[in-house]
Amino acid sequence: MATNSDYFRIVSPTLRVPSNKSISIPVGILACQRDPLLRELETTVIHCMISQAPPAFPNGKQTKNKKVLSPTLPNEPILQVVTHDTCIFPEGGGQPTDTGLIKTADGKLFSVLQAKRHGSHAVHYVQANQSDIDSALLSFTPGSTVVTKLGKDDFDRRYDHMSMHTSQHLLSALLEAKLHLPTLSWSLTSYPSSCYVEVPRVMTAEEIKLIQDEANRLVFEGRAVYTEVEELDENKKAEPATLESGRSVGRGLPTDYTGGIHRVVIIDGVDRNPCCGTHLPSIKNLQLFLLPHTDTMSRSNTSCARLYFLSGPRLITYLTSAHDFLTRAASILSVGNDLVPDRVRQVVEERKKADKRVSELELELAKSISAGLVNESTDDKQLFKRYVHRTNDSSNPLGFLSSIASAFSEQMANFSTPYLLVLTSAPAVQTLSSSSIIMVVGSDDKLVKCAGDALKSQLEVKGGGNGLRWSGKRMGVWKEHKEGGLVDSILKAIQ
Ligand SMILES: [Zn+2]
Fold first, then answer.
1. Which of 67, 423, 435, 451 is 20 to 30 A distant from 33 in Cα terms?
2. pTM for the model
3. CATH topology of domain 376-493
4. Where in the chain is the domain with CATH 3.30.980.10?
5. Percentage of the chain surpassing pLDDT 70?
């Protein structure tokens, strides 16, 4: 697929794309900006130097922002290569750098990890083999012919960026025209997450639908996209860019830009927006999906809201994964996809009822176990000691032991018999990473502490407590004839 010849329009009688192969074409009228679908370009090396890559994250930690991160530069020398022209886009206008390839005249293929704008030049950051740096420098001798390329993955990445970037222009234009909502900022997040525009207030569901419908009507028409370039009026350079409608796009030209080109991206009949990004020649494939909510953001003195959107490859990825989630959930629930919400609601309600019933029954059982123990105790001054083990696969075995302990101490309060009770609980199937729960309850805090200390030292139980209760956890398999026997002997030793 080729870009239409009228995509790139020079609107100044004096501006020319430099044809002299010994100078570099300024950012603004590079091949990637004149022809966004170009994947390969033969050109000439102007300049090449070795540079030491800066640390990827100067603060030593990666930013939490979900913005697209440039591919990390290796911690070894890299080559900075300037060519006469390039199909590899250097980052700018909110659009991240391309990745790409350069094939040199001696048949070698080098990876371009990043491309950046230095003043007016696009600089390729080329990966060179450390041991072969001198021969790499020779491959990039000024004046030699090279081919800049976007490989399949490089172009897929760029196509995704272009889809989201052109969609953002369309979305911002419609928000302004239909709802008078200026775009305060936007972010091109990493594939495949949704991107967002920031607007001054939350939008209603009706407003979101209105914008989405209007965008997709224009997409259906397949409105053309093209660019207009002319010499930059230096006096206007520092001003934030505004449209004829007066819309501020929130970002002026970068102050370090020295390329001398003023570039406007136009969506036919919809939008004119100063921008250096690569944009698709038509919006015909950019079905826009707006996530039907806006997130409010609190800032110190302003309020704004984020409207998330998807388009192009990300929209397909989103639909595919959303459909997959739904189908998997439907299969687990054994219902058709459209019945998933109702069935989930039903399952959640049943689960709540079941949980309530389990806790009621556990309480009843705890009281019954406790009553059995109380019956075994004799009403005299002898210390009543018991060890009870439970097999329990519930998610909260400590809760159940605690219920038994509470019921037991409550019932024993009617008697003057001193007591010490050790309760343990382990799952039915145990492995070395299983954990058993231990609870100690007694009529005297010294007895409880004594049992707790012995459990710690003899059974490697990790735990603690104060007063009349102590609880702990032990990793590994709990065997009644072994660990249970040890608890019995601990109790036996306490008088
Ligand atoms: Zn833009």
1. 67
2. 0.78
3. Diaminopimelate Epimerase; Chain A, domain 1 (3.10.310)
4. 157-320
5. 92
